[in-house]
Design goal:
By secondary structure, the chain is an alpha+beta fold. It is 26% helix and 18% strand. It has one domain: Alpha-Beta Plaits. The strands form five sheets. Strands 10-2-12-11 form a four-stranded mixed β-sheet. Helix 3 crosses helix 7. The protein starts with a helix and ends with a strand.
Length: 247
């Protein structure tokens, strides 16, 4: 009996791994291990965040959306038809005057993310530096995280992924859930997210990225000088994305 035990354990491991990968089909040239690797090596002394200045965000500008799509390879189209990691929304800021403002909405990278709490396979996880990701090894496409997210920031990939933006970017795969990664592959190379870069190139400078834990960082200086609030602050999730100009 003891001689057979290692065989049974090995078989369970193999079958368990196969079950976890069922329905997952990644783009050519991408491997599931890349998703897991993206969750390692994060600096726990850092918390990456984003400040959105809605007063500098033109309603008709889609530069951040276009940059995210080009960088990460999700298809163009409405969010109801295709995955969309970032979307522009127009919201009312005052019931009396009817004022409206445009703002980009993406994964808010919460300190206490509900998507992580409800995930039955621990596929949704938060890196030590505050970035919330999906481990494609573990995601079974149950979509509990999509229902739990109050920002509607996650999408399900229900079509085959036939291409990706560039080698080394965070992988996409059919049968999994995905969302904004803050361009984690760029951050790990010491670069800023694609949306922030493109917004600056367009001359709007509506997005400020940086370390929320560093009092000398650009984002912390901006937060000291400007009044900024989170979306759905009543939920107590402590999002890493803050918005200036909302009332």
């Amino acid at each position: 009996m003891s001689d057979e035990q290692p065989t049974r354990v090995s078989r369970r491991q193999v079958l368990g791994g196969a079950a976890a990968l069922a329905g997952v089909s990644l783009a050519p040239g991408l491997f599931l291990v890349q998703a897991q690797a993206a969750g390692t090596g994060a600096d726990s002394s850092v918390r990456w965040g984003l400040l959105v200045d809605t007063t500098r965000c033109p309603a008709d500008c889609e530069a951040c959306v276009d940059a995210c799509q080009a960088e990460n390879g999700w298809p163009t189209g409405e969010a109801t038809e295709h995955p969309q990691w970032i979307r522009k929304m127009v919201v009312g800021t005052g019931e009396r005057d009817g004022a409206e403002q445009a703002l980009p909405v993406m994964c808010q990278h919460c300190a206490d993310p509900p998507c992580v709490s409800v995930c039955p396979t621990h596929a949704s996880f938060k890196r030590d530096d505050g970035i919330v990701l999906v481990d494609k090894h573990r995601c079974i496409g149950c979509r509990y995280c999509m229902m739990a997210c109050p920002f509607h920031a996650r999408s399900f990939v229900d079509a085959p992924v036939t291409a990706h933006a560039s080698e080394g970017n965070y992988p996409r795969g059919k049968g999994t859930v995905e969302a904004c990664t803050l361009c984690v592959h760029r951050i790990d190379r010491g670069e800023i997210p694609a949306c922030v870069e493109r917004c600056a190139q367009e001359g709007h400078a509506a997005l400020v990225f940086g370390d929320l834990n560093d009092p000398d960082s650009e984002i912390r200086r901006a937060l000291r000088e400007r009044v900024a609030t989170p979306l759905r602050g009543d939920l107590g999730l402590d999002p890493g994305v803050r918005y200036q100009g909302l009332s």
